[in-house]
Amino acid sequence: MCCKSITAAAGSNANGHTIGKGEGSSVSYLIAFLEGIITFISPCLLPMLPIYVSYFAGGHTAENGKGKSKALKNALGFVAGFSVVFVLLGVFAGTLGRLLSTYQTAVNIVSGLIVVVFGLNFIGILNIPLLNKTLRPKTEVKVLGFFSSFLFGLVFSIGWTPCVGAFLGSALMMVSQQGSALKGIAMMVCYSAGLGIPFIAAAVLIDRLKTTFDFIKRNYKVINIISGALLIVVGILMMTGYMNRFLSLLTF
Fold it and tell me: What are the residue ranges spanned by the domains of the chain?
């Protein structure tokens, strides 16, 4: 799995703790990857998928060879674009966490509380309009190339931030607790992979995946409750300082 190699490449943190041993760090990369997947199936992204695929295909249908080839190339550019932004956010969060390492208890409480609020909003107990916005691309289809798709990904990652804020924010809060820019890069690459791989697959297989997407849409309420509950649990573990201990229990 790509995130395992990234974990190994990240090496050790400033205190000499090896990733994936003692602190369950390798599992945190898996959690970041899963958060990316959940972001993809969230109500603010999945319904917009046909519009994005139409952009990627550049006006061609994704069923023919030319349309699939173009959609794949442009989807790769789009994913690369938003991945750059998310990785830079990871560097910032990791660096900030390192600078605030003296106040680790306060960082744990604040970051955990933020994640709990995200979870409550996701379930529907809270209603934070900023986190419930959906960014829709313009309806007209323009001819895109790899580079323009890359720029498209850069721009939309910023516009997406309120929409994907719950799980993106959770991933960034976990990064801040790691206190390492290198770990921040690795974790956000895993998050971006979790979000990007389904995008790339959908770009060329959207018709075949229609039944799966319809099932997800019909069960959004249950998915939101489970996803929100996951965020709340993660937030509580972060607040209480038990996150690393919990992750170490999952590391074999």
Answer: 29-130+144-249
